[in-house]
Structures are given as structure tokens and as C-alpha cells.
Amino acid sequence: MRSNIKTIILYAVLIIGIIIVASSVLRNINADTKLEYSEIIDLFYEDKVEKFEINSRNILTVKTIPEKTEDGQIIEGKTYTRTLRSLELFLYDIKDYLDGHREGKIQNLQTYDIAEPAKTSWLLSFLPYIIVIVVMIVFWIFIMNKSGSGMGNIANFGKSRARMAEPDKKRVLFSDVAGADEEKEELREIVEFLKNPDKYRKLGAKIPHGVLLQGPPGTGKTLLAKAVAGEAGVPFLSISGSDFVEMYVGVGASRVRDLFETAKKAPASIIFIDEIDAVGRHRGAGLGGGHDEREQTLNQLLAEMDGFDSSKGLFILAATNRPEVLDKALLRPGRFDRRIPVELPDLKGREEILKVHAKKIKIADSVRFDEIAKAAAGASGAELANIVNEAALRAVRDGRKFATQADFEESIEVVIAGYQKKNRVLSNKEKLIVAYHEIGHALVAAKQTESAPVHKITIIPRTSGALGYTMQVDDGDHYLMTKEELANKIATFTGGRAAEELIFHSITTGASNDIEQATKLARAMISRYGMSEDFDMVAMENVTNQYLGGDSSLSCSFETQTLLDKKVVELVRREHEKATKILTDNIGKLHEIAKYLYEHETITGEEFMKILNEKPDE
Ligand code: ADP
Ligand code: MG
Ligand code: ZN
Questions:
Q1: Contact 222 CB / ligand 1 (< 6 Å)
Q2: pLDDT tens digits, residue range 92-137?
Q3: Using CB atoms within 10 A of its CB, is residue 271 exposed (0-12), middle (13-18) or buried (19+)?
Q4: What's the sign of the alpha-carbon dihedral 386, 388, 390, 396?
Q5: What is the value of pTM for the model shown?
Q6: How far away, in angstroms, is 325 Cα from ligand 3 center?
């Protein structure tokens, strides 16, 4: 902080100095320097002065008398001006002359005028400058703080904000990254190269210029990059894409230049640009102002990536969860020529991630990680880490020394479905409706052979807004789903509402999320997976945002859209009717299990299946 204030004072003194010098130079420019001071005094004593005046700023103006040249012509008198250094001195110098004038000895002087010198003190005359400087400095500090660089970086504004990984900090190693075996394998090869460039060079093998890690948020992209840094043992410069983005044109580009210069100083180094989509968004896509700056930054990045020789041991790693917005030029061979997809973990991966994080907490021996992994289908690495942490927190809250299976199961729901709301009370009627609704889902799911079995059903409200919650478990992970499985899923989504209709003959708002999901699925089946007779294998939607929610845009004619909407409705209606039929056929079980849930609030998959498979009492 002290040195910052010193820098500011230094700058201020410099600026004031410059202004003083400049203003005194300017004053002298005003003066006509053709005549020396002594020559002007001579003019007076030679009686060549017709009139003179001195204004309040000490500027002397002298007009001489007309003169006759040798050939008899009369030329006009000249005017000279000069800034007097001291009025007193001047008056002293012409004292005899003025005395002579008073005594009538001087003939040619007609009038003269001497104004009072302006009574501005030295300080006062500089006051406006000082005010301007102070305002400028204040404004400057304000901008610096605003742009997030702090005062310490006044001199480093155009420097990159890359952080060197510190060797003494706890290093992340590949063993800290669970699952993700293919990803680690590819990165390990690069680490090998950076450690032993000669081995590869001898063979003539070329390492890629850059590698792009792409995948949904929380899948461990940043973690993988840190592991590369930890393993490689070379300088690792990490920077976030948004660090390049400033409000000033040219700053981003100069930061990129600086980043590469720093990296090139070491014999081998890694540059890691996290969230590269902040700078790498394809050009011409900017909304509103400020995209010129980004384009400039991107162009600089492209130029730098072309301008280095990867055999020297500089390697660029980047991560993004929006690869589709990146400029095509970035993905061209010679830049990020290798892309590594980092996907959500599968069942085995989830189990391993849970175990890695569980090492940091105390857990009971009875905890079954495979069960937890199964129940946390679709969770990312970050969510799994969160689940483990929540379980530990719960154990502490309840005064236990170890986290138990129950802690983990509850924390899955906390992380995935929001906190349990103990103080939010449903009326009994509402609770009954929710119980039937949830059992509706579960029963439809269970009765369709290919649908996933139910893991847990609860009617304890969550902060996420869901009143009840049926946890579905996929038996193992599978990436290919048949048309029937998808249709069954839609039927399951409609099962909740179907139960409400069947039992209460009225419907509630509780099904909004089900409706959304069913619609999404039905739409995707028809428009993207080619699962309808009407459209065969024609895509009518393009996914524009693969990893963040999967937004899609329609790419078909207006008539087709109308037809598509109709087909979606037909599909959902068909499945809804199917769900109603399943529930009607099993209405005894629906009552039985719903009552059980109503009383117990939470039932497990096993309890559910047990009641379902019991012979009804005769
Ligand atoms: P991303 O950069 O892909 O959004 P991060 O690398 O920031 O995700 O991951 C966030 C956190 O999630 C990590 O700090 C780590 O605790 C956890 N995590 C994610 N993936 C894994 C994994 N494969 N193994 C262990 N922990 C993981
Ligand atoms: Mg990240
Ligand atoms: Zn529902």
C-alpha cells in the first residue's frame, strides 16, 4: 500500500513539473524576441519611442516613431512586445528617461500607460492545474479499482494476470483425479514429453500445440489441468479467459503477448487458459459494444499460437464447457489440435470419485460406495465432492464421529434435490395427494419391465420446490436407449398426474416439472432421434449448447413445426393413457402403497417392491 501511494505522488510531482516548464515556455513564446532587453532600453534613450504600455501581466508593448530612410521615404513605426522579468527593474532602468520626459527633454513620447501588476500569488495561478491533476488521479484510482486490478497494478495494467503454480503449495497429482482414465492417459503423454523432450525429438515425434478439455461444468477439467501442472514439474501459467477481457481496447491483446513472453523464458512451460470461451467466442458474434476488444485479443492469441515452436517445450492447455461457441480458427490444426472430452462420470467413475473424496473424512466401515454411486446417477465430480462434504457435515451436526450410509443417502438428496425443509408443513390433504402422485410415478415405472426400478420415494418437501421426490436408479449406465425405454420414461413422468386424476378426479399444479420433462423427451424423440414414422431420419432440431442444458434450435419449415408439435402431443397423450391404464389395473396396490407412504413419509425401493409383490390380503 505504501509503495502505491509513493508511486502516485511521484506521478503527480512529475506532472506538475511538466506543467510548470511548459507554462514558462509558453510565456516566452508570446514575447517578440527580436530585440534584446538592452536594445529596447536603448530605444527609449535614443528617443525613438512614440508610446509604450505595460499591462497587468508585465507585458511591455513599445511603438516606435516613423523613420525616414536614406532615399527620403517615411516608414511606419514598429511595435515590439516583450515580457518583463521584473517591472521594478524596468522602471529603474528607464527612470532617467521618464524624468527627462517630465522635464520636457523628450520630444517623441506621446503617451504611456503602466498597469498595476495582477496580484495573483504563484500558488493561486497554479490552482486550476492542481485541481485538474487531483481530479485526474482520483479518477484514475477509481478506474483501476473498478477494473479489478487494484492500485498495485497501475504499472502492470497490460501485463498478463497469469499465476505461476507455486511449487510449495500442495500439488495435485493424477491420482487425485478419479475415473477419467482416457483423459489422464492422453495428458500423461504430454507430461512425459515436457519432462523428456529429447526422447521424443530423437524419434521426430511432434507433440500437439494445444489441447482443449471440453465437457459439462464440474467434471474436473480444471482439476485435470492442475494435475498436469503437478506432474510435469515445469512452470505452469494459469489464467482465466475472463482475465483478458477488460473495458479498454488493446489491454487484452497486450496481456496475451505478455503471457507468451513470460512462458517462453523457461525452457519448458505450460500455459493453461481456463474458461477459454470468454475470449475465444467466434468473431462477429459480439452483442453490443466491446467486442472489438475481444476480437483483438483473440487475434493476438491466434497469432501467438502460430508463432511458437512446440518442440521448444511450450504447451497450451485450455478448458471450456461451451466448445460450440469457440472460433473455428482456434480449433484448426496447429492450435488446439487435440480435443479431450471430459464427460460426466459413469457408475465406476462415480464410485472412485466418492472414494477419493471420502479419504478426507471419517466414515463408518459399513458405507457402501457402490450403492451411493448408483443412487447419484448423473452427478458430476463436483456434485459428488459436495455429497461427501454434506455427509460429513451431517455427521458433525448429529454429534457422530463417523459419516454413515444414511448420511450419504440424505446428502445425495440435499445436493440433487435441495435441502430438506423440516419446517415447511403440508396439510394432510396435500400430503395425501403428493403420496398418490409419487406412488403413481413409481408404480408406472415398476410395472413397465424396462423402466428403472425405484430407489427411494419421499414426500418430505425440499427447498428446491419439489413436494415429493421419486429417486430413479438406472441399473448400470447405458448410453443407448431404445424407443420403448424412452416411451416408458414418458409414461413414468405422466404417472404422477394420472394417479391424481384417477383418485381425486381433479388435478393440481404439482406436475409442472413432470410435464416439462415429458415434453422435452417426447420432442427429442421425434425431432432428434428419428423415432417417429412421420419424419423418418430427418433432424428438425440442432443442439446449440451441448453441455449447458442442451438448448436447441428448430431447423424446419413452419408447417413441419406445427406438425411436430401435434406429434409431440399425440406421443405424450398415448403414454399418459398407458400410465392411467397401468394404474387402473393396479389400483389396489396404488392405494396400499400410497397409504404406507403417507404414514411413513419415506419408503425405500425394497419396501416398495415388497408391498408390490405381496399377495393381496383375501
Ligand atoms: P470444471 O473445471 O470441469 O468445471 P473442476 O475441475 O473445477 O470442474 O471440478 C470441481 C471439483 O469437483 C474439483 O475441485 C474436485 O473436488 C471435484 N471433481 C471433479 N471431477 C473429479 C474427479 N474426476 N476426481 C475427483 N474429484 C473431482
Ligand atoms: Mg473449471
Ligand atoms: Zn411428479
A1: yes
A2: 888 888 888 888 888 888 888 888 777 666 777 788 888 999 999 9
A3: buried
A4: negative
A5: 0.61
A6: 35
